């Protein structure tokens, strides 16, 4: 089987890494990929991941058997549709189904129809409506851009002026809409559920860290680290989420004539009233994918092919390593603002000295001399596994210390509270 992976981040690097370890996968092509992916797969130039015709041309030229679309933007733009229309098997939802991520309001509509437990929410198109909704729901205020915002469209704050300022910026966009939500207490969980449009198959839950600084200080980012499994989560959590959230959502999407094929990313909070969905995404999350795939023993290529071709019911259960996994994101100076780029990255060749540790590339590039440099906000995801969370953390951070990138920063508390058994539910 030959697989084409669309995307250029650490999530795609993790997917490519797992695919190359599947004996049923003969070759992997990535477009556009990155310097790290280029060491594992053939990277093809792709100027615009939303250009369906260009993606189809690459798939045709390489005669691939499966296309895996990593990021949300090409999914919402309909790249999966263009590929399917050209006869390719695709792991990734249609543009209509990807609205679960593309519109927070649409996702809430589907949740309501499917009776999925979630927080109260109001859709607002004016600042006065936002203010009224904030008054109705109370602080902390949760203000979400209705559209795609690369994980940075949400503000959670007790500061009324800051909440209104974020809402005003969202509304200023063409067709701007804002969703004002009830604040949900309790620890957050990310669960990826594979779907072939009918059958759902859950992966291992993970937890990510969205804010830029230790102790969840500072602005939201695309994610600064993650770990799994979640030793503190209720044993029946995954089964409950499949029964109450994933299967009803997939059933509702099929009922609407827009079956969801790909991975449904369920972001939720385990509140004092039980699990409540915060949001849906239509693709693997970053950085959670890095730790989830680090533990998955079931070959990934066959699994994604089964989802793309309506055969997920061939799988009774997935196989997982008993190890724990941690990833720590190394970010550029000034991320998540306007990150500094073009700085040399040194020390990746030393990471092999740390047992189980490896680096996945996110915002990297080669300069004119062929040297590795930073090229984005989140530059690397450093991953390690261990017999327990403490060992996985120790190895991940030991590897991070070997990376030299001027001005870079990372959180020092990824998975720390979980390793200390300080997370409680209910």
From TrEMBL:
Residues 1-426 form the Biotin carboxylation domain. It is an enzyme of class 6 (ligase). One of its GO terms (biological process) is 'de novo' IMP biosynthetic process. The keyword Nucleotide-binding applies. Its cofactor is Mn(2+); Mg(2+). Residues 108-309 form the ATP-grasp domain. Pathway: Purine metabolism; IMP biosynthesis via de novo pathway; N(1)-(5-phospho-D-ribosyl)glycinamide from 5-phospho-alpha-D-ribose 1-diphosphate: step 2/2. GO terms for molecular function: ATP binding; metal ion binding; phosphoribosylamine-glycine ligase activity. It catalyses: 5-phospho-beta-D-ribosylamine + glycine + ATP = N(1)-(5-phospho-beta-D-ribosyl)glycinamide + ADP + phosphate + H(+). It comes from the Bacteria. InterPro entries: ATP-grasp, ATP_grasp_subdomain_1, Biotin_carboxylation_dom, PreATP-grasp_dom_sf, PRibGlycinamid_synth_ATP-grasp, PRibGlycinamide_synth, PRibGlycinamide_synth_C-dom, PRibGlycinamide_synth_C_sf. Keywords: ATP-binding, Ligase, Nucleotide-binding, Purine biosynthesis. Its EC number is 6.3.4.13. Belongs to the GARS family. NCBIfam families: purD. HAMAP family: GARS. This is Phosphoribosylamine--glycine ligase. It comes from Knoellia subterranea KCTC 19937.
């Amino acid at each position: 089987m030959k697989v084409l992976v669309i995307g250029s981040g650490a999530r795609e690097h993790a997917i490519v890494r797992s695919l190359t370890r599947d004996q049923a996968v003969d070759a992997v092509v990535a477009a556009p990929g990155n310097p790290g992916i280029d060491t594992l797969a053939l990277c093809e130039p792709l100027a615009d991941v939303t250009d369906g015709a260009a993606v189809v041309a690459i798939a045709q030229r390489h005669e691939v058997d499966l296309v895996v679309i990593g990021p949300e933007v090409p999914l919402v733009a309909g790249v999966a549709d263009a590929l399917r229309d050209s006869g390719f098997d695709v792991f990734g939802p249609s543009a209509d189904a990807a609205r679960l991520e593309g519109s927070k309001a649409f996702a809430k509509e589907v949740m309501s129809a499917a009776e999925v437990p979630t927080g109260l929410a109001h859709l607002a198109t004016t600042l006065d409506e936002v203010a009224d909704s904030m008054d109705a729901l109370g602080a902390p205020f949760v203000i979400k851009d209705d559209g795609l915002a690369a994980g940075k469209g949400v503000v959670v704050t007790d500061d009324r002026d800051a909440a209104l300022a974020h809402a005003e910026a969202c509304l200023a966009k063409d067709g701007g809409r804002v969703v004002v939500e009830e604040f949900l207490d309790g620890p957050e969980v990310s669960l990826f559920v594979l779907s072939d449009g009918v059958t759902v198959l859950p992966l291992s839950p993970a937890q990510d860290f969205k804010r830029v600084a230790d102790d969840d200080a500072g602005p939201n980012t695309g994610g600064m680290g993650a770990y799994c499994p979640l030793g503190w989560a209720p044993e029946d959590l995954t089964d409950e989420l499949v029964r109450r959230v994933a299967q009803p959502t997939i059933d509702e999407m099929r009922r609407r004539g827009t079956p969801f094929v790909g991975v449904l990313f369920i972001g939720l909070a385990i509140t004092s009233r039980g699990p409540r969905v915060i949001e849906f995404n239509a693709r693997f999350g970053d950085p959670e994918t890095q730790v989830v795939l680090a533990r998955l023993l079931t070959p990934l290529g066959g699994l994604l092919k089964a989802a793309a071709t309506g055969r997920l019911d061939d799988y009774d259960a997935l196989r997982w390593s008993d190890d724990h996994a941690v990833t720590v994101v190394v970010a550029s100076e000034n991320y998540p603002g306007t990150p500094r780029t073009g700085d040399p990255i040194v020390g990746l060749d030393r990471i092999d000295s740390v047992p189980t540790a490896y680096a996945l590339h996110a915002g990297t590039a080669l300069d004119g001399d062929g040297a590795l440099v930073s090229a984005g906000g989140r530059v690397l995801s450093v991953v390690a596994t261990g017999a327990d969370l403490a060992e996985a953390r120790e190895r991940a951070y030991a590897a991070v210390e070997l990376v030299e990138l001027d001005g870079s920063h990372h959180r020092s508390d990824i998975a720390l509270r979980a390793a200390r058994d300080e997370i409680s539910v209910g």
